[in-house]
Amino acid sequence: MSSRVLAGLSEGLARLADTVAPRRCTGCDEPSAHVLCEMCVELALALPVPPPRPAAYGACRAALPLAAPARGAIHAAKYRGCRRAIHVLAALAAERLTPELLAAGPPEAVVPVPLGVRRRRLRGFNQAEVAAAALCAACRLPPPRTGLRRVRETPAQVGLGEGQRLRNLSAAFRWEDGRLGGGTVWLVDDVVTTGATFAAAAYALQQAGAGRIEAVAMASCARRGG
Ligand SMILES: [Zn+2]
């Protein structure tokens, strides 16, 4: 049996186990009927919102630091196929980020950061798509647009000159859904680490006519110098 089939099988079994086994909170692993228990939700709401990072394309925001309880919920989605964990994180993101985002008016489009075809097939779903859809629903916006394609994985940007950096960025993503109208676009992903993926995706959107990009992540890893 190929490793791809095995990976798919084990993800399927994990998803099944998720529906039949006694539930545990993904944040603290205590028994809970919910993806995040009441205490973890309270903890999440009490954490300070990570400050927005200004970027050449606009700004990058995250609802929570990638620590308890968000880390467990992200892992449950990524490795155990638990989509509900992303729904809960997106609801938290809507609560914590969108009042400020919507103060500038509704976006022209909400766009999830796509996975490569192979990774999308292995995982069965893209957390960024689930998060973008949940965010749109929470803010009563039209559904996300899915015209962004990942042409190749975003390479590390560390130590590259400006020319090479731009070549890398322009080659990573492509927008395939006509021209954008110059408005603000919310670009959604599950986790932001260095910001290189957001920068590359934002570059493709702006090449296609987008105005300001508000990059929105459910959780943010502390900057590690890359
Ligand atoms: Zn908990």
Strand order of the largest sheet: 1-2-7-6-3
The bound ligands are:
zinc ion
Count all strands and give the number: 7
CATH class: Alpha Beta
Uncertain residue segments: none
How much helix is in the residues?
Answer: 40-55%
Overall structural class, as computed from helix and strand content, comes to alpha/beta
**Termini separation:** 38 Å
Q: Any idea of the CATH topology?
A: Rossmann fold
Q: For the CA atoms, what is the radius of gyration?
A: 18 Å
Our estimate of the beta-strand percent is 15-25%
State the shape. Answer: globular
Blueprint (SSEs and pairs):
Blueprint: H1 3-20, H2 38-46, E1 53-55, E2 58-65, H3 70-80, H4 83-102, E3 109-112, H5 117-123, H6 127-138, E4 148-150, H7 162-172, E5 173-175, E6 185-192, H8 196-207, E7 213-220
Parallel strand pairs: 2-7, 3-6, 6-7
Antiparallel strand pairs: 1-2, 4-5
Helix pairs in contact: 3-4, 4-6, 7-8
The structure holds zinc ion (ZN).
Question: Could you walk me through the main structural features you see in this protein, from its secondary elements to its overall organization?
Answer:
The chain has 226 residues and is an alpha/beta fold. The chain has a single domain, classed as 3-Layer(aba) Sandwich (Rossmann fold), CATH 3.40.50. The protein is built from eight helices and seven strands; from the N terminus they run ααββααβααβαββαβ. The protein has helices spanning 3-20, 38-46, 70-80, 83-102, 117-123, 127-138, 162-172, 196-207; strands at 53-55, 58-65, 109-112, 148-150, 173-175, 185-192, 213-220. A five-stranded mixed sheet has the order 1-2-7-6-3, sandwiched between helices. It has a two-stranded antiparallel sheet with strand order 4-5. A hairpin with a 2-residue loop joins β1 (53-55) and β2. The longest helix has 20 residues, at 83-102. The model has no long low-confidence stretch (mean pLDDT 87).
